[in-house]
Structure formats: structure tokens, C-alpha cells
Design brief:
Layout: E1 4-13, E2 33-41, E3 48-55, H1 59-70, H2 79-83, H3 87-95, H4 108-129, H5 133-138, H6 142-145, H7 160-170, H8 174-183, E4 186-190, H9 200-213, E5 217-221, H10 227-241, E6 246-250, H11 257-267, E7 272-276, H12 284-294, E8 300-303, H13 310-318, E9 324-325, H14 334-347, E10 351-352, H15 361-377, E11 385-387, E12 401-403, E13 409-411, H16 424-430, H17 441-444, H18 446-464, H19 468-472, H20 476-498
Parallel strand pairs: 4-11, 5-6, 6-7, 7-8, 8-9, 9-10
Antiparallel strand pairs: 1-2, 2-3, 4-13, 12-13
């Protein structure tokens, strides 16, 4: 018996806004961040599970609070009996809680918080098994994998029986595909040269550098206030990467439907493979109309990084609204829900090209892309997984790439057990607001340094406002510890005054 003894939540942030890394038409100053969940157990070997969900900074405050609200549904559970014996039942315990689901259901902050916790559960499971998540799932027989997919609200698109038949049909050759992933890896594309806030000279320099590294698939952000700015940047990138490399575009939901069609007709001269998120992420019909208008131009529509749940993907697929399905590892509620999307995409032969880029996302989606290839699609034709060059240094088993003879750069298959895990130093340095780097103005910039300081002050003011009745409810030893901390602070203050 292994029990979950605690669910710890860390607010982790990094000041990417200082250099406009991650900037696009809608998100001008993102600070790549995540809520990091640690599931601790009573296992003799210290077994733990680690999960995260990505935000752009202050969103952490909301998601972290929601993760705390889920803790009572997890702590005390027996790992084997209460969780792993029926993962779908456990997942529904989180996503369908009678009171919390009202603020969803199955969407938004609640779904993202459930995703962080369920990512941690899968990480825990695969660490216990001693396998990286992608290989752990790849080895599952169809009869096992199908039980990890929830078909509720999907039966008009695909039934459990149809799903099992598809998995069985795709199973032959799985061992060869696993060996291929270990040997060659999964094709990658890069967004690192195309952020909207970058000037032209930086874009050109980064394109040359990334070409030298082996990249042949490049994505750029579009949606500038002046459409001619997008044309200028597209021309610069196409000139640098040449006609043989592939260009993709991403509007981050900036445009209305007619605007998207008009702007992409102008940008089609640069031969983009796809336009990503051309309009509001929930507008299924809008995506369908854009797709219909752009197909004659050879431009596909891609979306999914902020699709709220499997039902949104179902509708996008049913309406023939996308050519490329972009799963995100943290937006919906964990790997099982992602598997349902992979299954529906495989049924319709829609290419899955996962979204990544944010902190931890590349570490996650390499697993999911390889699972898609081995278990669901069995094809690499036209399939690439997003990558960026930053923030990998904070992880155990960080992403690595291999340049192939076919002029593609590929994700190397993860080797360590689990899904993804921060290095201890990453938490020491960048946990907000107490991480060491947040006290260093040179590291985080004056504005964010001041915000971190303000957050600490607010935390202290909340502690000082605690009532006597609250203190009376605590174990006396905790009150004594608090008293000792207060006394120490007062002594230091008096010494500073006397100096």
C-alpha cells in the first residue's frame, strides 16, 4: 500500500518579458510560468510525482489556489486501490466534483488545475514503473489503453468499441516504432525566431542560427497592428530560411473571421503550411469558414493549444475545421483526455502537431507526440512537434535534439522515468516570490523585482492580520514557532537601528 500524504503547490515564474520571449499579437509581455504540483507518498523509497500546468505569470495565482482546492480529493488516497485501479474514476473525482465543476465544467482554470494534478499522478505512476511516460504507454496493449480513455460525450463521433478496433488495427509494428523513436526521435519545428516583439535584425540572425542547428520548420507570429509588419517579417524569414524550408504562421486568436481570410490571402504568397489560431479559440464555425476559404491557397488551419476540452476537439474535427490538431499538455485534464483527442484525430487522419514552447511544455509534448506515433497515428508524414530553445536548463532529462540526414531536427526520446521534473535549483531560484533570483533586480528586472517584494509584503500583512481565535485553534507548538520567528525579526530590526 502506498498512500498520497501531501499535495504541495509551487508558484514558479521566469521573467521572459524582459526580452520579449514568447510575445505575440495578444500576449505582449508574458512571463513564462507554471504551477508545479508535488505529490508525496509514504513509500519507503520516497516515491513522489511531479506535475505542472503552464501560465503567463499572474495566472499562477488563480491556478495554484484551485490546485489547493483539489488537495482534499487526493490526499489520503491509496495509489493502487483508489487511483491506478480505475484512472477514469479517479479523474472524474477531480473534474466532476459536485461543487468545483460549477466553475468549469471541464474548462478553464479548473481543467488546468486538474491537468497539473493528473500530470503528477501519471508521473508518479510511471516513476513507480521505472519507465518514461511515452514508453510506458507505448507498451500498453489496446485493451489496457482503451480503459484509460473516457468516451463520455464522444459517442456521436467515436465509440469505445470503434476506438478499440482502431487501436488494434494500428498495433502491429509498435515495437519497431518504439525502436525508431529511440534511434531517430520525433520531428520538431521551432518558434524561437518568430516572436512578435523581435526586431527584423534579430529575426534574421536567429533564423540563420537555427538553420545551422538543423531546423527546417519555422513558425512566426502574425497579427501586428499594421498588417504590412507581418508581410515584412514573413519576407525576412522566407529570405533567410529559403524555399526548401517550411514556414508556419500563428495569429493567437487576433483576427475576426473575414479579417483572417483577408490577411492570409495576402500572406499566402510566402507559402505558409498553416495559419494557427486565426480567430477566437471557441469559434468552431469560424475556423471552418476560414479553412474552406484558405484550402484553395494551400494554407491549412491549425488550432488546439487553448481548446478547452475533448468536446471542442470533437467539434473541430466533425466540422472539418482544421487540418492540423494542436494538443497542449496542460490545457485539458491530463494525458487520458489527450489520448481521447489523439484517437479522434487518428480516426479522421488529421495530423497531430503538438503545441509547446512554454516552460515544461516541450518536456511534456515529446512524450505525447511519440505516443501518438506509436499507438494512434503510426505515421510521421506531415507531423512536427513545436519546440523552443529556452528554459530547458531547469529540468531533469531536458529536451535534446538530433539533426537527421533527411534535413530534419528531431526530439530525442526521453530516457528517465516519469513525465517531467524540475531541478531543485530551479525551485530555489525562481519559486515566486521567495526564490533567490526574485531578490536580484539584475536577474528579474526592476518591475518584477518590485512585484516580488510587494507579494512578500502582502503575505506578511495577511499573516499579521491573523486573529487570536485562529491562533487558538493551532497546536501550541506552532504558535510558539511563530512567536520565535517574530522575536527574531524584531531583534534584527533593533540591531539595524542601532548600527
Amino acid at each position: 500500500m502506498t498512500k498520497i500524504t501531501s499535495l504541495d503547490v509551487v508558484d514558479w515564474r521566469y521573467p521572459t518579458s524582459l526580452n520579449s520571449d514568447g510575445s505575440d499579437a495578444v500576449h505582449k509581455d508574458p512571463d513564462y510560468s507554471c504551477v508545479y504540483v508535488v505529490l508525496r507518498t509514504d513509500a519507503a523509497d520516497g516515491l513522489e510525482g511531479y506535475g505542472l500546468t503552464f501560465t503567463l505569470g499572474r495566472g499562477n495565482e488563480v491556478v495554484a489556489r484551485c490546485c489547493h482546492s483539489l488537495a482534499d480529493l487526493v490526499i489520503g488516497k491509496d495509489l493502487e486501490k483508489d487511483i491506478l485501479s480505475d484512472m477514469m474514476r479517479f479523474s472524474r473525482t477531480l473534474t466532476q466534483d459536485g461543487q468545483l465543476r460549477w466553475i468549469g465544467p471541464e474548462k478553464g482554470v479548473l481543467s488546468m488545475a486538474c491537468g497539473a494534478v493528473l500530470n503528477a499522478v501519471w508521473d508518479l505512476w510511471t516513476r513507480q514503473a521505472g519507465k518514461p511516460l511515452w514508453e510506458f504507454v507505448a507498451e500498453m496493449e489496446p485493451e489496457t489503453l482503451i480503459e484509460l480513455i473516457d468516451f463520455k460525450h464522444l459517442s456521436d463521433a467515436i465509440t469505445k468499441e470503434q476506438g478499440l478496433a482502431l487501436l488494434k488495427e494500428r498495433r502491429p509494428g509498435w515495437q519497431a516504432r518504439v525502436a525508431e523513436m529511440k534511434r531517430d526521435g520525433y520531428p520538431a519545428y521551432t518558434t524561437s525566431a518568430g516572436w512578435l516583439g523581435y526586431p527584423e535584425d534579430k529575426i534574421r540572425s536567429l533564423c540563420r542560427s537555427l538553420l545551422a542547428q538543423g531546423h527546417r520548420y519555422f513558425k512566426m507570429k502574425v497579427g501586428s497592428v499594421d498588417p504590412e509588419e507581418d508581410v515584412m517579417r514573413a519576407r525576412a524569414i522566407r529570405e533567410e530560411i529559403g524555399e526548401q524550408s517550411c514556414l508556419m504562421m500563428d495569429a493567437n486568436q487576433k483576427w475576426d473571421v473575414p479579417e483572417a481570410i483577408a490577411n492570409m490571402r495576402q500572406l499566402a504568397t510566402f507559402r505558409p503550411l498553416w495559419i494557427e489560431e486565426p480567430t477566437n479559440c471557441d469559434d468552431i464555425v469560424g475556423h471552418r469558414e476560414i479553412a474552406r476559404a484558405l484550402r484553395p491557397l494551400g494554407v491549412g488551419v491549425a488550432t488546439g493549444e487553448v481548446a478547452q476540452n475533448k468536446v471542442m476537439f470533437k467539434q473541430l474535427l466533425q466540422e472539418d475545421a482544421i487540418e492540423f490538431c494542436q494538443i497542449d499538455s496542460c490545457r485539458i485534464a491530463g494525458p487520458s483526455e489527450i489520448f481521447s483527442v489523439l484517437l479522434m484525430a487518428a480516426q479522421r487522419n488529421i495530423k497531430v502537431c503538438p503545441h509547446a514552447g512554454g516552460v515544461g511544455l516541450c518536456e511534456y509534448v515529446r512524450h505525447l507526440a511519440m505516443i501518438d506515433y506509436v499507438c494512434f497515428s503510426t505515421s510521421l508524414e506531415g507531423r512536427v512537434c513545436e519546440s523552443t530553445t529556452h528554459l530547458h536548463e531547469f529540468f531533469h532529462d531536458p529536451v535534446e535534439f538530433r539533426s537527421m540526414s533527411d534535413s530534419t531536427l528531431r526530439y530525442i526520446a526521453p530516457k528517465l522515468p516519469g513525465f517531467a521534473q524540475f531541478l531543485p535549483s530551479a525551485l530555489d531560484d525562481w519559486a515566486f516570490p521567495h526564490g533567490k533570483s526574485w531578490s536580484d533586480e539584475a536577474a528579474c528586472g526592476a518591475v518584477l523585482h518590485a512585484k516580488a517584494r510587494a507579494a512578500i509584503v502582502k503575505e506578511g500583512e495577511q499573516a499579521a492580520a491573523v486573529t487570536e481565535s485562529t491562533l487558538a485553534a493551532l497546536d501550541p507548538s506552532l504558535v510558539e514557532a511563530l512567536q520565535a520567528k517574530c522575536a527574531a525579526v524584531l531583534r534584527r530590526g533593533k540591531r539595524k537601528l542601532s548600527e
